[in-house]
Amino acid sequence: MSRNLVVTVGIDGSESALAAVDWAVEYARPRGTSLRIVTGLEVPVPAYTPYPLPDVHEAVEADARRSLHTALTRAQQVAPELDVSASVVAQRPVPALLEASRHSALLVVGCRGLNDVANVLLGSVSAAVATHAACSVAVVRGTRPVAPDAPVVVGVDGSGGEDTTLAAAFEEASVRKAPLVVAHAWSDVSLVAAAGAVVGTWPTWDRLRQEATNTVEATLEVWRAKHPSVRVGTHIVRDRPAAALLDVGRTAQLVVVGSHGRGGFAGMALGSVARRLVHHADCPVLVVRHSVTA
After folding, report:
1. Are β-strands 34-40 and 84-89 bridged in parallel, bridged antiparallel, or unpaired?
2. pLDDT per residue over 196-209, tens digit each?
3. Which neighbouring-strand residues pair with 40?
4. Tens digits of residue pLDDT in 266-286
């Protein structure tokens, strides 16, 4: 089956994993894609155990199959029309999910988000998957109710390199019949370079804001024409990029960000914006994988 027709969701038996299954079902339904539920085997290797190691492995696999059965039943009850499958993969979670991403249009994972320790654990799975997956990754975060008119939010820098991210954001807004908020943060831009000024001539914040607005509007012109039914607003602020997205994301139903390059914002290192959103956003985060081949 073509990877473009498969959405994969990774589970671990937690409530947050079931929330990821619910999200993946709602993503797959309007697109007519198949849904694959996957769990990797995390077998502990204790220094000492009174039980033979084969028994430990069997217990872990049995627990994984129970979790799969619960998730599969849940998905089939909610969306009986979907083609849903489930499988236990004899690999640790990260390698298992990365391998699954090679055959998927989207990989979905949950986030427990309970405390700092949970965030460290998240970083070992979700952040690794978001960084290295062969497809886009959705990290399902947040437990707050979503308002019917909650927007989809996307971050841009106007450099012309975020077409894949914008395409994903406009598609999400269109499918969800939601407004789209395009966020742009410009505090990290060099004042002299941004204004095209000579050394010694310092632009005003108002001038920089206007230039940022013009850049964003020029970027959006073609996308507005492609998606005339999507209501588009902008959020242009003098702030750190990740902080700006976290702020506007507090009332969003989804935040969309690029996975590499500048992460959708100027002046940011590889994955830094996406990584912070994956750890701290108050709603699901879609990390869009940019194609590296023609």
Report:
1. parallel
2. 544 455 567 788 78
3. 89
4. 433 336 788 888 888 989 999
Residue type, 106: L
H helices, E strands: number in the chain: 10, 10
Q: What CATH number matches the domain at 3-140, 1.10.4080.10, 3.40.50.1700, 3.10.330.20, 3.40.50.620?
A: 3.40.50.620
Q: What is the pLDDT of residue 228?
A: 96
Q: Are 257 and 229 within 8 A, CB to CB?
A: no
Q: Can you name the residues that pair with 269 across neighbouring β-strands?
A: none
Give Cβ neighbours of residue 168 (< 8 Å, ≥ 6 apart).
Answer: 136, 154, 256, 286, 288
DSSP 8-state code for residue 3:
G
- Among 292, 19, 241, which Cα is nearest to 138's? 19
Question: How far is the first Cα of the chain from the last one, in angstroms, to the nearest whole number?
Answer: 21
| Among 204, 24, 232, residue whose Cα is nearest residue 110 | 24
Domain ranges in the chain are 3-140, 152-288
pTM: 0.84
Q: What is the CA radius of gyration of the chain?
A: 21
Cβ contacts of 252 within 8 Å, gap of 6 or more: 150, 151, 152, 153, 181, 283
Length of the chain: 294
Any alpha helices (H) in 103-143, and if so which ranges? 116-122, 128-132
As given in the structure block, the two tokens for residue 199 are: 């050394």
* Predicted local distance difference test score (pLDDT) of residue 192: 46
User: Residues 184, 235: contact at Cβ < 8 Å?
Assistant: yes
**Would you tell me how many other CB atoms lie within 10 Å of the CB of residue 44?**
9
